[in-house]
Every structure is written in structure tokens, then in C-alpha cells.
Design goal:
By secondary structure, the protein is mostly beta strands. The protein has one domain: Sandwich (Jelly Rolls), CATH 2.60.120. Helices cover 0% and strands 60% of the residues. The strands form two sheets. Strands 1-2-3-10-5-8 form a six-stranded antiparallel sheet, with no helix packed on it. Strands 4-9-6-7 form a four-stranded antiparallel sheet, with no helix packed on it. It is globular.
């Protein structure tokens, strides 16, 4: 299978998980392509000042790989600065959120797999 850039579904999610601004979600795979092993593989973009709200993962876990920009990652209540090249992992039952604290878009790949 090959998906060209112009074939990828773009979603604009305002206040994602209670966050600020709008998150652009570029779906690299669709839910039916996970064979019941996961639900999200996407390239996300947050404009400066935008965020994905703090939320808990039940029955799944999520990894982020940052490809551009700078932000503040909330890992179970502790905040860490992140930038291009960093990777995060939130396990089942854990919580996280992310905010773009830089002057350019914060871009990252997000992968959510089932436990």
C-alpha cells in the first residue's frame, strides 16, 4: 500500500482534549488499517500557544516523536520541555498533555496502540 500526501485525511480538531486552539491531525493510517491493534497514527500540528489538553489513557498507550518546534510536555503531572528529535511514551493508565511554547508550529507523530 502507498498513500500519497494528497490522499491523507486532514482533520482540524478545536480544543482537542480540552486544549487551546486547533490541532491539525493528518491521519497517516485510518482506524480500519490497524487490524484492531490501535487507533491512531498521525502527524499533528499545533500552532504557537495551542495545546492538547491533559488526558488519561485507558486500554491504550501513546508515543509522540517530535519533528519540529518546541513545547512543554506534561507527563503525569510533571512538565518537561520537548523539541525536534525527542520521543515520549505514555502507558496504560497514565496521563499527559502537550502545549506549543515556541514561536513556530510544533509538529509530531502520534501513535496510539491498544494494550
Amino acid at each position: 500500500m502507498l498513500k500519497h500526501n494528497n490522499e491523507l485525511r486532514h482533520e482540524f480538531a478545536p480544543s482537542l482534549r480540552g486544549g487551546k486552539g486547533t490541532t491539525e491531525v493528518i491521519h497517516l493510517l485510518e482506524k480500519d488499517q490497524f487490524h484492531n491493534k490501535g487507533r491512531l497514527f498521525a502527524h499533528n500540528r499545533l500552532q504557537p500557544g495551542s495545546s492538547i489538553g491533559y488526558h488519561r489513557h485507558e486500554g491504550d498507550y501513546e508515543a509522540y516523536y517530535f519533528i519540529r518546534g518546541e513545547g512543554m510536555f506534561n507527563d503525569n503531572g510533571r512538565e518537561y520541555p520537548v523539541r525536534a528529535g525527542d520521543c515520549t511514551l505514555i502507558g496504560v493508565g497514565e496521563s499527559h498533555g502537550i502545549e506549543n511554547t515556541g514561536g513556530e508550529d510544533l509538529e509530531f507523530i502520534a501513535l496510539v496502540l491498544f494494550d
